[in-house]
Structure formats: C-alpha cells, structure tokens
Amino acid sequence: MNYNYSIMKPGFLKFGQMAGLLVIMMTAATATAQRPGVHFHEKMEQIRAHKVAFITDRLNLTPGEAQAFWPLYNDFEAKRDEMVASFREKFDYTPEDVAEMADDKALEFVNAYLDHEQHLLDLRKDLHNQLKEVMPPKKILMLIGAEKEFKRELLRKVGGMEGPPRGSHPRSGW
C-alpha cells in the first residue's frame, strides 16, 4: 500500500480540520447513541480503539515503541482536545453573530484564533520533540500520514460513502 506522508501542503492539521473531525466524531457518536443499546461514550471508545489499532498498524510499532509512544500521544490528544474545547467555549460565534460583529470584536477574534493556532502548533512540535526520543524520525513522519489517513477513513464512514479514489482530487494527497 502506498501512503502519502507529505506534510508540506498548506492547511495541514488546521484548527478547523481538527475541530471539524471532532465535531464529526461526536455527531456520529451522538447519532449512534440514539439507537437502543448504543451509548455516546461507548461509540467514542470504539472510535478511539480503532484509531489506536490503525495508528499502531500503520506505524508498525514494536511493543517497546508502543509502550513509549501511547502515553505521549494520549497526553498530546488530551491537551489538544482541552485547548480546542476552551477556545470554542470562549469564541462560539454563529455566522449571524459575525455578520453583526463590530470590527474591533472581529479583530479580537482573529487575533485569538491565530494565537490558538500557534498554541496548537507548539503542542504538536512538543509531541514531535518527545517522540524523537522514543522512535525513529521515519515513524514520526508516518504518524502524520496515518493521522490524515485515519481522518479520511472516519469521514468516509461517517458520511456513509467511499469517496473518490485516492489521488483523484485536484489537490491530490489531501
């Protein structure tokens, strides 16, 4: 199987993409939770277990690497999720709110958004620096590709469609 691990594309792991994936995951879990016998937290745990298996497989982690990798990655995800939730709580605007927003308030939001994006990037850099101590750089690069591939797979499953074949999009690899 050929994986695309390009990280130099504009827009890679932007706040909107990560937040969008979280919203899709939560929407899927909520929709599933409405069926008898299936609960939101159970569905989220199923998604999480699938992600662990997916990443472990794609990175071909040895038992020692997995033992060192997963605590670091789980800590990163917990911090990232908290940062995203905190930002959304403070800046939960609808398009109508934005249309009516004064310029000074809009500028405040833009600056807060850019600060938030920088904090997320700094968090990602910290993770990569920690991972360099426990696994080869190639596997760190493979992680980036595996995260993107998992997100695409999850979006296809939630959307109930297979989507276009890989590479058919004008911006192939996204």
- What is the mean pLDDT? 79
Number of structural units classed as domains? 1
Q: What fraction strand?
A: under 5%
How many β-strands, per DSSP?
A: 0
Shape: globular
As a whole number of angstroms, the C-alpha radius of gyration is 18 Å
Overall structural class, as computed from helix and strand content, comes to: mainly alpha
SSE order: HHHHHH
Give the CA-CA distance, first to last residue: 17 Å
In short:
The protein has six helices and no strands.
Commentary on this structure:
- There is one protein chain.
- With 174 residues, the chain is mostly helical.
- The chain has one domain.
- 72% of the residues lie in helices and 0% in strands.
- It contains 6 helices and no strands.
- It is globular, with a radius of gyration of 18 Å.
- The two termini are 17 Å apart.
- The N terminus and C terminus are likely disordered.
Structural descriptors:
about 170 residues, mainly alpha, 6 helices, about 70% helix
Topology:
Elements: H1 15-33, H2 40-59, H3 63-90, H4 95-100, H5 103-131, H6 137-159
Helix pairs in contact: 1-2, 1-6, 2-6, 3-5
